[in-house]
Known about the structure:
Strand order of the largest sheet: 1-2-4-3
CATH architecture of the domain at 3-50 and 96-182: 3-Layer(aba) Sandwich
Number of helices: 7
Order of helices and strands: HHEHHEHEHEH
Structural class: alpha+beta
Helix content: 40-55%
Amino acid sequence: MEFMEAATRRRSIRRYEAKSVDDEQLAYLLSAARWAPSAHNRQPWRFTVLRSRAAKEKLADAMGAKLKIDRTRDGDAPTVIAADMQRSRARIAEAPLVLIVTMTLVDMDLYKDEARREAERIMAIQSTAMAVQNVLLAATSIGLGACWMCAPLFCSDVVKDTLGLPEDWEPQALITVGMPANEGKVAERKSIELLVRNFD
């Protein structure tokens, strides 16, 4: 599949067929991720692969418990919270493959001043996001569906503790992957004129 075809056909797929993602497909996705560009070529992304139903359910339940605490504190109705928890749990637990996306600062440059330290952190986040984009496009190019979920940002410690991640691995996102059960929603895109400013 050519690049523009993959880029325009990609959708956020949340429902999958009951068919596993094989080792060759997984290797293809991870290879695409590792070839993403990164600041200083430090490649700060790290991935944790969840394939078993038990592992996915364990993570989904732990994240759901944190979601319930936060939403209850927000004053949301218990029925709304329960529905949100159930929907989120199903998306994670029923996906054939789940990739936990984390980033590390261990190889990034260190600076004495806060401004440059923050810039370096942002560069690591941006680099990791580019690796995620490669995964999403690679999945589309081989007929798989995928969905980027940022929920781990809201419960970073829960994800780290549940999966026993190294201390320096900071959860950034979760990607569900599988054979699409539907084509996903066609999202509108803003016109180029609204997005681009020419400066001569």
